[in-house]
Write a structure and sequence with these properties.
Blueprint (H helix, E strand, L loop, with lengths): L1 E4 L3 E2 L11 H14 L5 E3 L8 E5 L1 H9 L4 E6 L5 H15 L4 H13 L4 H8 L3 H9 L5 H4 L7 H10 L4 H11 L6 H12 L9 H4 L2 H10 L8 H7 L6
Parallel strand pairs: 2-4, 3-5
Antiparallel strand pairs: 1-5, 3-4
Helix pairs in contact: 1-2, 5-6, 6-8, 8-10
């Protein structure tokens, strides 16, 4: 472990995390100002310019700069392969603070381009294969869906993307109508089910299709006659024999 000057440490341009919440960094900076960095960052060995590239801990490095610290504790680790380093950075970021969907999409795309299968990515990142399929599908989405990737639920956008292959106009109208208030995964699933299995119109009973006077006549013609025994007949006649 070494105590490195903050100015000698630089972020990794290949880090999958692109966005750092300023409010969260400010909170972390206050903690570091009081107690220092409790867990050291991990860096690669110094390059030809004497700079140490961060492998893990860019948030702690950024917060330390905000806190005005001149140095930071660091573990110098031999460089892993570029692919292994990317996988480890994704895992480290996910364990500390979830990556945005767009950041995960970029990481998955880079791994796919390096020849990794979706199954291998899912296993390495401890994700469900379906989740990797959803990340991998984002570049194929229409612009009006892709621009919502960090706003709407990932599964909801994936379902809309698949449904848009057969119901493009309906999907566009749905997205336009819900853009402001947003959606839930369940609401989108119900909408997509309605597109796939539209309910057929209910068939009315035949009697309701007939004119009113014909319907009454039909009812009279199909009435079942009631048979009364002699005693019942006497009661109907007031108890007297005819």
């Amino acid at each position: 472990m070494q105590e490195l000057a903050l100015d000698d440490v630089i972020p990794d341009p290949e880090n999958p995390r692109r966005d750092f919440d300023e409010e969260e960094l400010a909170k972390l900076a206050k903690s570091i100002e009081r107690r220092g960095v409790l867990q050291p960052i991990t860096v690669r060995p110094a390059d030809k310019d004497g700079k140490f590239v961060i492998r893990f801990g860019e948030r702690r490095w950024r917060a330390s700069k905000i806190a005005g610290k001149p140095t930071i504790r660091a573990i110098v680790s031999e460089t892993a392969s570029e692919t292994d380093n990317l996988v480890e950075q994704v895992i480290e970021n996910e364990q500390r603070a979830d990556l945005r969907t767009s950041e995960m999409v970029e990481a998955v795309q880079r791994l796919l381009q390096k020849g990794w299968s979706k199954t291998a990515i899912a296993e390495e990142l401890s994700c469900k294969p379906a989740e990797i399929t959803q990340f991998a599908a984002v570049p194929e989405m229409a612009d009006y869906l892709r621009e919502l990737i960090d706003v709407w639920p990932r599964r909801a956008l994936y379902d809309l993307h698949i449904a848009s292959r057969k119901h493009s106009d309906a999907i566009k109208r749905f997205v336009a109508s819900r853009r402001e208030q947003g959606v839930t995964t369940a609401a989108v699933a119900g909408f997509v089910r309605g597109l796939k299995d539209p309910q057929p119109p209910k068939r009315l009973p035949r009697s309701k299709l007939l004119p009113r006077h014909l319907s009454k006549r039909r009812a009279r013609s199909t009435a079942v006659p009631i048979r009364l025994n002699p005693i019942q007949c006497l009661h109907r006649l007031g108890g007297r024999e005819a």
